């Protein structure tokens, strides 16, 4: 089995040029763990690369091991722990979603002639991660990386409709609002897409459908429309478009052909 000094660490010697920064030290250790080959990374070499004492590096690694971010090997080296592996899986999944959805979002914008967004749902958070903008002069722009509520807006309701009663209960909404929302979510499930009229942005409408992985909602596909451009039949027009796009993304993510 490899000893402590058998693996050459590839962590950055300093993060942002601040060797004495505790945060930079932790980032450099995480970088070394993420890049470690079989046999892990050793304390002595990490200390040399970072220009700090072995005890300081060992303390960081032990703390990471306690949090299951790192895993201590019998050799004295450290390898990625289950938490770091989970981060890698999630980031890889999100990158996969972005790559697979790009063409679908572009096609959706061509058909809808309005701006489309992709969200991901993980850890109880709904986050806007990608957009394909239309070329109309008036459109609503959502910040990439922004968090969206589950109980308001089409993007959130499309996901919430498939999360179960316990999630709605955790939102602790007033009873009248919760009752109204339950009825809205039931309609969302029945037709396959959510509708929002001025819920997050007063002068905007949204139409969204959830996409799934392993039978669970993983995010939503949304089209946003300025309210003055939303005709009476807007839901009939945009709803099926987002529903079809979300279904296509679900099929790509699960590597299953369309039914």
From TrEMBL:
Domain HTH iclR-type as annotated: residue spans: 20-82
Keyword RNA-binding: no
Domain IclR-ED: 82-255
Keyword Transcription regulation: yes
Any one GO molecular-function label of the UniProt entry: DNA binding
Top-level taxon: Bacteria
Pfam families: HTH_IclR, IclR_C
A Gene Ontology biological process term: negative regulation of DNA-templated transcription
InterPro entries for the chain: GAF-like_dom_sf (IPR029016), HTH_MetabolicPath_Reg (IPR050707), Tscrpt_reg_IclR_C (IPR014757), Tscrpt_reg_IclR_N (IPR005471), WH-like_DNA-bd_sf (IPR036388), WH_DNA-bd_sf (IPR036390)
Keywords attached to this entry: DNA-binding, Transcription, Transcription regulation
SUPFAM superfamilies for this protein: GAF domain-like (SSF55781), Winged helix' DNA-binding domain (SSF46785)
Name of the protein in its database record: Transcriptional regulator
Organism: Pseudonocardia sulfidoxydans NBRC 16205
């Amino acid at each position: 089995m490899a000893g402590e000094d058998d693996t050459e660490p590839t962590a950055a010697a300093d993060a942002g040029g601040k060797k004495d920064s505790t945060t930079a030290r932790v980032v450099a250790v995480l970088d070394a763990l993420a890049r470690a080959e079989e046999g892990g990374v050793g304390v002595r070499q990490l200390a040399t690369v970072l220009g700090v004492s072995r005890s300081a590096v060992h303390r960081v690694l032990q703390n990471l091991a306690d949090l299951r971010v790192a895993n201590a090997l019998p050799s004295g080296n450290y390898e990625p722990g289950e938490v770091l592996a989970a981060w890698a899986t999630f980031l890889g999944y999100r990158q996969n979603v972005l790559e697979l959805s790009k063409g679908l979002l572009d096609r959706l914008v061509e058909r809808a002639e309005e701006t489309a967004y992709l969200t991901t749902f993980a850890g109880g958070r709904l986050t806007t991660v990608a957009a394909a903008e239309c070329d109309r002069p008036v459109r609503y722009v959502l910040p990439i990386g922004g968090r969206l509520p589950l109980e308001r807006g089409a993007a959130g309701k499309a996901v919430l409709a498939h999360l179960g009663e316990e999630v709605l209960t955790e939102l602790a909404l007033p009873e009248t609002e919760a009752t109204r929302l339950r009825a809205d979510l039931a309609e969302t499930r029945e037709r396959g897409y959510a509708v929002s009229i001025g819920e997050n942005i007063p002068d905007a409408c949204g139409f969204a459908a959830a996409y799934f992985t392993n039978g669970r909602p993983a995010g939503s596909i949304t089209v946003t429309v300025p309210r003055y451009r939303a005709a009476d039949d807007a839901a009939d027009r945009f709803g099926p478009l987002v529903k079809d796009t979300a279904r296509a993304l679900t099929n790509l993510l699960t590597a299953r052909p369309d039914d």
